[in-house]
Amino acid sequence: MRVQTVCILGGTGFVGRQIANRLANTPVRIKVLTRHRERNRHLLPIPNLELKEANVHDPQDLRRELASCDAVINLVAVLNEGKGEGRRFEDIHVELVRKLIDACRACGVKRLLHMSALGAEPDAPSRYQQTKAEGERLALEAHGEDLAVTVFKPSVIFGPADSFLNRFASLLRIAPVMPLPTPHARFKPVYVGDVAAAFVQALEDRDTFGRRYELCGPRVYTLEELVRYAAELMGIQRYILGLNDRFSRLQAKVMQRVPGQPYTWDNYLSAQVDNICVQDGLGELGIRATALEAVAPAYLGGRMTRLRYNQWRREAGRD
């Protein structure tokens, strides 16, 4: 299959930016949809990228923007749902997929790459996982002669500007004691560059049609091990208090009421399922998984250096 134009939903996010950069200076034209074009002007230097303002939840907007595309990559997802239409798990993980499939068929789009998640199963404990599973089911059921579908199921994704290790790094910087819920939850973190490479590799590869790929890194960690590693890289000593199940539940119920919802009941439920691959999807795509230790020191190890530098500038009156 020859792809000339690909539309990326969620292209301004963590993984989307990586995919766009990998497609930079290739014959493939990239269209990234966003509700706020001015906030994402940093993508404009990519020479073959068009940044379009559109509401992906509006079927008319979707059809208008997909009319000139051969392929679509759907990366839209949320870890915590908000209130109101368009912000709930079902709206984003299920209804958007249904609208997208309809738009693909109406516009003659022949290729759909869909981001699901490891642990997404109909009988999973959390609504996040359940709705991701339903969206995955809809995507794969749409696979056929008129629309070739591939699904990716990554573990937690790490890399510069990630929302996982960087979140803990920020908390470690300000908190002398960190109460850590579900400290024994297990993950096999995957590098964002490897996830982006999987999408780009599969884009025109017929062998990937109708398949799903689990994406994981080379090593299993507990949540507590990851947080302690982040503290080690930052060169700080903190007391990390692993909470038992009772107090993990309590923290989830309390923290989901805090502005920004740093931890929710649904997050707690998601952590009850190990985030570990059964299948080596990266290996099947010919991609060698990148170790966390090969990447994290560059963006976590430099955090304290940058903070100290900024503090010195303030003390010197240069800010």
From TrEMBL:
Organism: Sediminicurvatus halobius
Pfam families in alphabetical order: Epimerase (PF01370)
Organism taxonomic ancestry: Bacteria, Pseudomonadati, Pseudomonadota, Gammaproteobacteria, Chromatiales
Domain NAD-dependent epimerase/dehydratase residue range list: 6-213
Name of the protein in its database record: Complex I NDUFA9 subunit family protein
Matches recorded under Gene3D superfamilies: NAD(P)-binding Rossmann-like Domain
One function term, GO molecular function aspect: protein-containing complex binding
